[in-house]
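FORM 12-B: Structure-to-Sequence Request
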């Protein structure tokens, strides 16, 4: 039994070694074995967290002596840090003594300095640079060149509609009914423009909600933002419809989960705020479907008729009164935005 266990450990070591060679972690040229820096750092971190070298040796086959040399080599090759200036030391000390919420935004931390460290005289931009030097903040990303298109995306009603589906469960007399609520929300005004209630999330639920959106706005949005759960078989009919009406499909992608944050936020509010409803129906399925429709109607009315500060304390329903006309002078910015959407669509498709 012990022999079999040792044999299994040996086989696992060989398998792990092959994986490391394939991934570039180990380079074996028969004369000298070398290990990638990322592998050395991973082993050192694992050991620092309390994992003995002997256990790592059992898993990887790398000797304890070799792993001990990893730390010596990395420390020897590590560039020497320059001593911090007095200003950097003061700000680092203030940062470490501040609360988490005071570090979230730069202006909040600046206010913290003004109140508790009045002796630190520093401009806003200088403070940002010091925090970047200390590794506490990150440099700003490059500005987008097509500013006109960006402004239209953020502020022009019905430029982008975010779409997503949410499962609804209705329990009636112990019987469970499940439906898909597919909804579109205007990214600029957060108006819920269209909804559908179907048995499953599909191209039919998408298109039905999209058509409802047109009834609200009197035209389709220039682009619709959707997630990537929709299978290709369903997506083809959506693409055909959008192509026919000149709608650009913008898809969420890895690393940008917040791109459809408005619709996700509204689904969260829906969970918290919807209460009693009254229903009619002769069969359990009719009653359950009526419940689903009433819930959506109540929620839509509540959201669309709540004042928004960004709209001058007007409601989205007041802003979107059906009489919106796009001025002639915005056409160039809208065309720039359309070109940008098409480029993004090509780039995103290449990621999959």
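FORM 12-B RESPONSE
SEQUENCE OUT:
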């Amino acid at each position: 039994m012990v022999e079999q266990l040792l044999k299994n450990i040996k086989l696992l070591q060989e398998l792990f070694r092959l994986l490391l060679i394939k991934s570039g972690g180990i380079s074996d040229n028969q004369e000298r074995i070398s290990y990638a820096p990322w592998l050395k750092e991973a082993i050192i971190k694992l050991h620092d967290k309390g994992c003995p070298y002997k256990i790592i040796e059992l898993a990887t086959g790398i000797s304890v002596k070799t792993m001990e040399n990893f730390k010596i080599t990395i420390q020897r090759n590590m560039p020497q840090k320059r001593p911090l200036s007095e200003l950097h030391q003061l700000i680092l000390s203030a940062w470490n003594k501040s609360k988490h919420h005071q570090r979230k935004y730069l202006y909040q931390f600046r206010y913290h300095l003004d109140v508790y460290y009045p002796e630190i005289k520093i401009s806003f931009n200088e403070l940002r640079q010091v925090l970047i030097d200390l590794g506490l903040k990150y440099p700003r990303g490059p500005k987008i060149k097509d500013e006109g298109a960006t402004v239209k995306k953020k502020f022009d009603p019905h430029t982008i509609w975010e779409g997503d589906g949410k499962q609804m469960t209705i329990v009636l007399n112990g019987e469970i009914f499940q439906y898909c609520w597919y909804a579109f929300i205007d990214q600029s005004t957060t108006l819920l423009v269209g909804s559908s209630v179907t048995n499953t999330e599909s191209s039919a639920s998408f298109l039905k909600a999209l058509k409802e959106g047109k009834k609200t706005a009197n035209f389709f949005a220039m682009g619709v933002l959707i997630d990537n759960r929709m299978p290709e078989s369903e997506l083809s009919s959506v693409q055909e419809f959008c192509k026919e009406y000149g709608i650009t499909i913008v898809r969420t992608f890895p690393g940008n989960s917040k791109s459809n944050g408005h619709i996700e936020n509204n689904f969260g509010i829906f969970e918290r705020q919807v209460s009693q409803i009254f229903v009619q129906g002769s069969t359990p399925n009719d009653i359950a479907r009526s419940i689903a429709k009433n819930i959506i109607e109540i929620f839509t009315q509540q959201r669309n008729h709540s004042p928004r500060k960004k709209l001058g304390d007007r409601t989205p329903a007041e802003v979107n009164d059906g009489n919106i006309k796009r001025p002639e002078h915005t056409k160039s910015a809208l065309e720039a935005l359309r070109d940008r959407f098409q480029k993004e669509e090509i780039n995103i498709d290449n990621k999959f």
